Amino acid sequence: MFCSKCGGLMLPSKDKKGAKCASCGYSEKGQSSLKISEKGRNSEDIAVVDNKQELDTLPKIKATCNKCHNDEAYYWHVQTRAADEPETRFSRCTKCGHTWRSYG
Questions:
Q1: What residues contact 31, with CB distance under 8 A and at least 6 apart?
Q2: In terms of pTM, does the model score above 0.85?
Q3: Are residues 79 and 92 in the same domain?
Q4: Are residues 57 and 77 located together in one domain of the fold?
Q5: Looking at the structure, do residues 26 and 75 belong to the same domain, yes or no?
Q6: What is the domain extent for residue 33?
Q7: Considering 50, 54, 71, 85, which one is annotated as catalytic?
Q8: In this structure, what CATH number is given to the domain that contains residue 56?
């Protein structure tokens, strides 16, 4: 929905009984068809590899495990933050299975 005065984006008011222009501040009364929603990402949304067959297809790197001091790990990347930020690299020890993350 766009402002009839300046063409700016109309945002729903907090009381949900109208809308207000983000550019010029013009308000329109009435029932707004716009909805405010907040989406977040929680740790349950992050893909973690658990299947042994999936692990065998992943590339390996030289990385030291903090638990068993093995020097090889599988790795994969996941975009856990905003799109303009680097991916998170997950690593899993090839010996003990300990998983850790590194931020780009």
A1: 16, 17, 18
A2: no
A3: yes
A4: yes
A5: no
A6: 1-38
A7: 85
A8: 2.20.25.10
Q: 54 and 99 in one domain?
A: yes
For the question of residue 85 being annotated catalytic, the response is yes
Do residues 68 and 92 both lie within one domain?
A: yes
Catalytic residue among 15, 72, 84, 87: 84
The pLDDT value given to residue 23 = 83
Q: Pull the structure tokens for residue 55.
A: 């692990």
26 lies in the same domain as 55: no
Sign of CA dihedral 7, 8, 11, 15: negative
If one counts every other C-beta atom within 10 angstroms of the C-beta of residue 69, the result is 10
What would the pLDDT profile of 47-104 be if each residue is shown by its tens digit? 556 666 667 788 999 999 999 999 999 998 888 888 888 889 999 999 999 999 988 6
The whole-number pLDDT of residue 68 equals 96
pLDDT tens sequence across 9-21: 878 776 667 788 8
